[in-house]
Amino acid sequence: MPDWSRSALRTAAFIVAFALAAGPAAAREPAPGELLGATMAAEFALQAGRLDEAADAYLRAARAAPDDPALSERATRIALLANDDERAGEALALWKRSAPSTLAMRGIEATWLLRTGRERVARRQLVALLADPDPAGWRHALAAISAGHREPEGAARLVRRLVDAGAIPDDLQAWLAFGGLSQQLGGDISARILAEVMQRFPDEPRVALLRASKLRTDGDLEGAREALARVEDQARLSPELRLAIAAEYDALGAPAESARVMAIGPQDTRSYGLRASLLVKAEDREALGALYAELREQAASPDPGWRLMLGQIAEYLERHEDALEWYASVPGGEPRRVARLRTAKVLHDLGRHDDAFAALRALQGDAAVDDELRRDAYLLEAELHKADDRLDAEADAYARGLGAHPDDGALLYSRALMWERRDDIPRAEADLRRILVMEPENVAALNALGYTLADRTDRYREALELIDRARVAEPDNAAIVDSYGWVLHRLGRNAEALVELRRAWTLMRDPEVAAHVAQVLWEMGRQDEAREYFRKAKELDPDNRSLRRALESTGAEP
Predict the structure, then answer these.
(1) Whole-angstrom Cα distance, residue 165 to residue 172?
(2) Is residue 555 classed as helix, strand or coil in its secondary structure?
(3) pTM, two decimal places
(4) Based on C-alpha coordinates, what's the Rg of the chain?
(5) Where are the domains of the chain?
(6) What is the pLDDT of residues 484-505, one digit of tens each?
(7) Which of 150, 381, 443, 538 supports an S-S bond with 397, CB 3.0-4.6 Å?
């Protein structure tokens, strides 16, 4: 799980495949009276993270209620999540008999066919979906390709065949979506799609952005810059297009250019804020100073967001006294809440540590402010003690915070990070389990605890159950997919692990994911491939902890 210290995990759609034909017939049909027992058993198994047992129990429940499409649909979803294609096939047969065919069902059918190696039949289904006049058709086809092939090479090959067959509809959004998928998959199909898109939609600025993205992915950074330069004037057409062009410059590692694009056209608080953050990222203090002067001249009105932004820019420019004045002038609302916390940070940066901690203590004891602000004052206090390398004081801040806000999830999660950082895994586990007592389906805590047990202990089966519970909620979350792949590796199932880890890499370019892929490849004897992933991880973050541990474990040099 890449950097499990992230406090929230990206929400993702539950996209899975379903079967076309039934599997082998059951030995006997359960009596209707078995429905309740089977359903309860399924839910208990699911809550425990035992997906194989849940898949079996849900299928028994679906057999007992063959006219309940919702139940058979759930049985199929869980079976496929458990990688049990046979049970998924039988469950879908029940679902198809109890509900009319829909675009979603047809897409699911194609996915299952791909899962079971029946690509020719699946391709016919995909072509039919792509030809449907409803735009949802191509979206279901795209989801089927993503979920059906476990290897990126297979999915790329299938996309190539669909393009060769002229199956992609003459819809810009469809071509852009397939282009984005092809870039994630790798190989030469993305170049083919780009050529088709440019021919079909030559005047569309989003096509130029796709070309720039393709060139960047291929390592042609100069070509990508040239492609963006030719479309910059289009930034005036809409704020959304301006943002997209700026984002591509930022992805190129050119935040100053991104800020320059954001300066094109009418400005508002959002665009000014993005410009400021980009200039901070570029470490362009001169340009940021000019922006600060421009904004300061427009700060006559007591706009809270505007004054907060000026305070933050002044803080970065180390104009600390200015920052304190701006923060003090923020009149109210959410910006005022942030300003009060930032004031303590500025005082700390000025070396006025006693004043900083006094300000935070005042917030912590102020009954007139909301609970969230008081809680955040404890979080910031702990962060400042960490920066001062005062480990006991950091732990004390969390302890006092939890004394005032018992079982607060944010405080527990942050303290768990502290324990994990100090290699105190039992205490990190204890805090994460406290979160799960209050919120049994907290996906972040499930994944964090599961990954930690897989990575730092030998309790791999327990880790798998926790991660599987997270997978049920967010099966396409890249961080969870990575955790799943990593625990499979720790269980010695390297071939399966590699499939999941490469899928995680396709979903999210993260140094920890790359390091995991590299380590598994290395242990499988594929050192040349492993070195390439080590290189990618090092380019993203040479100081990543997982990368360092993987290099030490394998003795590899990227």
Answers:
(1) 18
(2) coil
(3) 0.75
(4) 27
(5) 352-440
(6) 999 999 999 999 999 999 989 9
(7) 381
